[in-house]
Specification:
It is built from 21 helices and no strands. By secondary structure, it is mainly alpha-helical. The longest helix has 19 residues. The chain is globular. The N and C termini lie far apart (98 Å).
């Protein structure tokens, strides 16, 4: 009788616990997703772990563990544990994540590769290099089906090279590292931090392989590239006369490189003229970005001393529009572009001297009145944009161009 009563008590306790389980709505799940992303972006990983765990409960309840959103959020939980200095927990979560991915989503090659790559990274960090290498090879095979020689592919190759080396597979390590560095060189240039930072690992793998000749060559290459980089050399594209939309779109990444160079160097930098020529040529022909200039910015182009800062505004607008995938800048983007332009003036003030109206705008930034002016200026830009809108509505007959 006591056993029966005890069993009944357990059943009642279980039913009570189930009754107390949180029931989530789709709206609550969306809020948890937004909060989790924010915590991870702000690198508040302990809080991220708590929020992601709750979001996983909601997703499992609403969609089930076979859903891709559930699996990829589990991947984020593993990442949060790893960045919170809990690698063993990260490995535990990622093993579960890999199992779910292989069971339900192995044909989603890109996400499958990302999950495998994270699992490999965390396993390698805990000294489990054999299992890590096996997952790394799977990650590479999956991502090769996507076909992209991008930053993700470079990361997969770099992690795989590291674990191959740890397991004594030095020839494979060299091969994978060379593939990764070819991608990085294409993406960022050989003087980039991304490229130079990987050269010591290549030297290490050559040394482990017993190839001292190539190891010494890499060491000399590191010294040369670092010296050139310290002297301000960057891997900029050659100035090009853009004529078609297709030409511009093929070089969207290149123009962003030139814009970034402008904002990270002074006007005296050796390649500044090259960067400016490229930005102006691209912006004048590109259909992807509309450089809208009000009267206040427009006056900068009328004087030699202030024209570079008008071009800095063009560069800031270009970066914002391409990064946000918009053709026309919004109010937030206009404020960001103008503030970046004024900061660029402040960094170059010793070169150009005090210049109006830039000096006035710099002072307004300090006393907090610049934002109000920018809002007024943006409204004028919107007004002009709306007035011009009917002009863009042409008939099909009018779209035929003549050579």
């Amino acid at each position: 009788m006591k056993k029966i009563l005890f069993a009944c008590f357990l059943c009642l306790a279980a039913m009570s616990a189930q009754g107390q389980a949180k029931t989530y709505t789709p709206e609550e799940a969306d809020k948890l997703d937004t909060l989790a992303r924010r915590m991870m972006t702000q690198e508040r990983y302990q809080e991220a772990i708590n929020v992601v765990t709750r979001h996983l409960e909601a997703l499992k309840q609403l969609r089930g563990e076979s859903d891709s959103a559930y699996i990829m959020q589990m991947n984020n939980l593993g990442r949060s544990y790893y960045h919170n200095n809990q690698p063993e927990e990260a490995v535990r979560v990622m093993r579960q994540c890999v199992r779910l991915m292989e069971k339900y989503r192995s044909k989603d090659y890109a996400n499958y590769a990302f999950v495998l790559d994270n699992a490999e990274l965390f396993l390698g960090a805990t000294g489990q290099s054999k299992e890590a290498e096996a997952l790394g090879r799977k990650a590479l095979a999956a991502y090769e089906k996507v076909g992209g020689n991008d930053q993700h592919m470079a990361s997969i190759l770099i992690h795989l090279a590291e674990n191959c080396s740890a397991n004594g597979h030095h020839k494979d390590a060299v091969g994978y590292q060379l593939r990764a560095m070819a991608i990085l060189r294409t993406l960022w240039g050989e003087h980039s931090e991304e490229y130079i930072a990987e050269l010591p690992y290549l030297q290490l793998y050559y040394t482990a392989q017993g190839d001292t000749k190539n190891a010494e060559r890499v060491e000399k290459r590191i010294e040369r590239l670092q010296q050139e980089r310290d002297e301000g050399h960057a891997d900029l594209p050659e100035p090009t006369e853009f004529k078609t939309a297709k030409e511009c779109q093929a070089h969207n990444d290149d123009v962003q490189t030139c814009c970034s160079y402008l904002f990270t160097h002074t006007l005296r930098a050796s390649q500044m003229s090259q960067a400016i020529q490229y930005i102006v040529s691209w912006a004048n022909a590109s259909p992807d970005v509309t450089i809208e200039v009000g009267d206040s910015i427009g006056q900068l182009f009328g004087r030699t001393e202030t024209a570079p800062f008008g071009i800095a505004y063009m560069a800031a607008v270009t970066l914002y529009c391409l990064q946000h995938n918009v053709k026309h800048i919004d109010e937030e983007g206009y404020a960001a572009a103008c503030n970046l332009m004024v900061q660029y003036y402040e960094h170059n003030k010793e070169i150009v001297g005090l210049q109006q109206p830039l000096e006035r705008w710099a002072q307004m930034r300090k006393d907090g009145t610049y934002d109000a002016q920018l809002r007024r200026e943006y409204q004028e830009i919107v007004k002009v944009r709306e007035e011009k809108a009917p002009e863009a509505e042409v008939s099909p007959e009018d779209t035929t161009s003549s050579e």
